[in-house]
Amino acid sequence: MLINFLFMLQQKFKKQIIAPLAILISLSGFLQSANALQLHKRLYINNGTFTTVDTLQFPYYSFNGSKNYSPTNEVINMRSNDTLVITVINNDTSVHGFMVQGYSMASIQLNPKDSFQKKLTFSKEGVYIFYDDFQYPLNRYMGLGGMICVNNHKNTKNFYWNLKEHQKTYNKDIANNLNVDWSTYYPDYFTINGKSYPDLQNDTTARVLANVGDTVYIFIANSGQSKHSIHFHGFHSRVLFSSANYIQDNTIKETYPLNSMQCVLLEMIPDKVGLYSVHDHNLVAVSGGGKHPSGMFIIMKIQ
Amino acid sequence: MKKIFILVLGFYAMNTFAQKTIHLNKYLRSNIGTITLWDSETTRIFGITDALAAQPEIPAPTIICNEGDTVIINALSISQSDHHTIHLHGLDVDTRNDGDPMTSFFLQHLQDTTYTFVAKHAGTYVYHCHVGDVVHVQMGMYGLIIIRAKDGVKTAWTNGPAFDKDYGWLTSEIDKSWHDTIPQHDPITDKLIIPKYVPDYFLVNGKSHQQIWADTLIQINATVNRPTYLRLCNIGFSDNQVIFPKGLNATIIASDGRPLPGKIRTDTVVVSPGERYGVMMVPDKLLSDSITVNFLSLNTNVIQGTEKVPVNITKSSTIKVNSGKEPSILIFPNPTNDQISIKTNENITDVTIQNMLGQIIYESHLDIQDSNAVISLHGIKSGIYIINVQTVNSTLVSKIIFQEN
Hints:
heterodimer; A: six-stranded mixed β-sheet; 4 helices; globular; B: mainly beta; six-stranded mixed β-sheet; disordered N terminus
């Protein structure tokens, strides 16, 4: 269609330059289309236990890349216009669902051992939460929320923060099919990628380790129930994508409040060496089991 | 040659004048400190003072400088057993000056140091102790930092939108049980043991209820069609939902010390812990109302407390607020057990009386073109009330005491 339009222009204006331009544009579109990939990803809904920083345990679920349970949900990386063929397998003994936040799709229910396949394409760079919408928000609260990260840039250093919090008695009650009252929710454990400080320091996907001048992309999703206000020491960042209130694209900030199910993609270019903390500025969330510091606290290293 | 020399000298002098070095003293105190809350209860606090002899207050004194200034803070910890730092929140300083004990150093009792920052971006920031921050911030160790535009020009940022006057609100909460029994270290894990946080006092610049109504630095007094800039900063552990009355025409223009890429026209701003917002208000009519600040739980989104800050928008800038010095509006008798009389040298337009919870118990838009009015207080319970008298050019906000017979 574009070629036809340019051909018409050439006929009308008799400009010799139009034809080569058309070829270039056409070729560029072809290459872009040819570069778009089809990615295949399997997600298993696994049932397990969560172990806190003070070694308590409570029931938990997670989307994992294999049948082996891990409390850390999968992170799926892709580019815009790639096609993600996602296969979700219910590896649990109860019914689950699958949904992608902000994506137009029908709600899916998966009986035990059932599987479901869906093709997904995202046009915009950013962060999208996939989650279990069955008995919402219970299954999502119990851990079933992961991240799809869309990034078209090759030379960025990427880090992924999936924020959650937990009230241990709620996990036990929900696992026992008891009702919980969200109006009295008071979480006692706060995690990023299923870990709290100091364990979080050993998560290489979470802990920013970069050089001065690097372009650092930080994908943040709040798949928990509470709001989290994430504050950076040392650096402001530029917002590349946001589904959060008041946070527009290209906003430059250092504190990012995320409601439940909100996400941001940040671009940070460090200008100085050193160690810099990032933490929830609801300082109660910098704790675990009523002890401080723990929880949502991580130290970036810039060299 | 001489002309060039004078020109260069002049340029140098201008630069020297424009960018100055400010030296401040800050005393980090956790061995003394008490504040009186709105209900006359007193509670223990920590604090940061400018003088050794000063008593800690909530918040600590505001640091004000201009863009381009270098600020050197001489900090001395006087705390007996606690350690302290000053974290320069939002100023993007290096690790040495960041005041984070997890990445840098802390001050023991009688230790001192300097923290330095260059005021690169005009905006609103905050400083606070970062040692055991959940406790030390809760105890009151925080204050605002306002970086004005270059040369102190009244604009939101250098070459940004202008304002007539600006206000800074630093919001927080108090869970009195934390202050009564200050959370302590667990000697085994070397961690602070923190109890459940249930705030029972909600503060704007350290004040609540009638304390706010009596504080002319918090309440907004502005003029129709003139821009007033409100700097909002939340250092508490709850969300602040700030609701502006119609007619103020509030627009969010900045956050975290940077201009927003696009203005957001709204009547509600939610400020989360650690965030700052710059809100420009250009009222288009006379107002005698209040800005509501709701404090919401981050876990349940339930409102835990509400404060109301008076807003008085008048025609001219000749606002007269009761300071006890030669009032142009007289209210008498006060205390009273029957009625009050209002006598002014201008025509009265509105009279509002509110109780200490901010509830309006009397409101009158007076048609009388008179400088005198008498208001009966029959049926009102004994107590302290806030009366707001608006005349053509003035507003008086004052306390009245009513004692039933």
